[in-house]
Design a protein that fits this description.
The protein is built from 11 helices and 7 strands. By secondary structure, it is an alpha/beta fold. The longest helix has about 30 residues.
C-alpha cells in the first residue's frame, strides 16, 4: 500500500517539477541574453514601481504610449521616433507591467494607468504635452485628459479601443481566467505558451502590424524579450489584460474632450503614420 501511495505521489509531483523547471529555464535564458539599456534610457521612481522611459530630440514634448498585448513595450515606436525626434522632445514610456518597467504582482486597471500618465507628465515632462497612443492605451489617455485637461495639447489615437464602447468589462469567466493565469505553476506555463516566439509572431501579424511581412525576426525577438523581462511576475499584467480588467468605457469622456484629436482607425504603414502624425502636430 505504501509503495502504491508513493508511486501516486511521484506521478503527481514529477510533472509539476518539470513544468517548474521549464518555466524557470525560459526566464533565465531571456535574462541571460538581455541587452543593456540604451543611452537615452531613464527610470521614473513611481509609487508602484520604477517606470522605464527614453528621451530623444529637443523641442516641444511628445509622449508616445504603446498598446497593450503580448510583449508590448515602447519599442513599438522604434520605426517612428527617429523622424519625430527631429522636431520634438520625444518620450517613450514602458507602462507598468510591460517592457523594462517593474512588473509587480497586482491587478492592472485603467485607473492605475490614468494615475501613471498623470504623474509622469507632471513629474517628468513637467509641461503640457502632445500625446500619441495606441489601442487600449487610448482609453487610458482619454480618461487622463478628461480629468486633467491642462496636461495635454494635441492628441493622436491609433486603432483606439475603449472610446466607442468596445471594451467589455470582466465577466465571471474572465475573472477565473485571470486567477488561473496568476497561479504560480499552471499560470506561468500558460503565460510562457502565450508569449512564446510563435505567440508573439501571431499577435504581431494579426493585431499589431499593417502587413504580416513587416514582422521581422528582430521585432519578434524584441517582443519575446519584453514579455519575459522581470521573471514570472510578468504574467500579472497580461492576466489583467486577458481578464478585461484594464478595460474602461471612455466613450462619454472622449465626446467631452475639447482638445484637437486625430483618430486613425485602420492599421497603416509606419511611414504613413509618421507623416500623418507630423502634419497634424504642426
Amino acid at each position: 500500500m505504501k509503495s502504491n501511495h508513493k508511486k501516486r505521489w511521484s506521478l503527481f509531483l514529477l510533472p509539476i517539477f518539470f513544468i517548474t523547471l521549464y518555466n524557470r529555464w525560459i526566464f533565465w535564458k531571456v535574462d541571460k541574453t538581455r541587452k543593456t539599456y540604451p543611452k537615452t534610457a531613464s527610470f521614473f521612481s513611481w509609487k508602484w514601481g520604477n517606470i522605464y522611459y527614453t528621451v530623444e530630440g529637443s523641442g516641444k514634448p511628445l509622449l508616445l504610449i504603446h498598446g497593450i498585448g503580448t510583449g508590448s513595450s515602447s519599442l513599438e515606436w522604434k520605426q517612428n521616433v527617429k523622424e519625430w525626434s527631429k522636431k520634438y522632445r520625444v518620450y517613450r514610456i514602458d507602462l507598468l507591467g510591460f517592457g523594462f518597467s517593474d512588473k509587480p504582482k497586482m491587478t492592472y486597471t485603467a485607473f492605475l494607468y490614468v494615475q501613471l500618465l498623470r504623474d509622469f507628465i507632471q513629474e517628468v515632462i513637467q509641461e503640457p504635452t502632445h500625446v500619441i497612443a495606441h489601442s487600449l492605451s487610448c482609453s487610458f489617455t482619454t480618461m487622463t485628459c478628461h480629468q486633467y485637461p491642462h496636461l495635454f495639447k494635441k492628441i493622436i489615437f491609433i486603432c483606439p479601443i475603449g472610446i466607442n464602447k468596445d471594451a467589455p468589462y470582466p465577466t465571471l469567466k474572465k475573472q477565473w481566467i485571470k486567477k488561473i493565469m496568476e497561479s504560480p505553476i499552471i499560470g506561468t506555463l500558460l503565460y510562457n505558451c502565450i508569449t512564446s516566439r510563435y505567440g508573439c509572431k501571431y499577435f504581431l501579424q494579426n493585431y499589431a502590424y499593417y502587413h504580416p511581412k513587416n514582422v521581422t525576426q528582430d521585432i519578434i525577438r524584441n517582443h519575446y524579450h519584453s514579455a519575459h523581462i522581470g521573471g514570472p511576475k510578468a504574467r500579472y499584467a497580461l492576466a489583467s489584460f486577458i481578464g478585461n480588467f484594464m478595460n474602461i468605457d471612455a466613450s462619454s469622456a472622449f465626446k467631452n474632450l475639447s482638445h484637437e484629436i486625430l483618430v486613425m482607425n485602420k492599421k497603416r504603414k509606419p511611414s504613413i503614420i509618421t507623416k500623418q502624425c507630423t502634419d497634424f502636430l504642426k
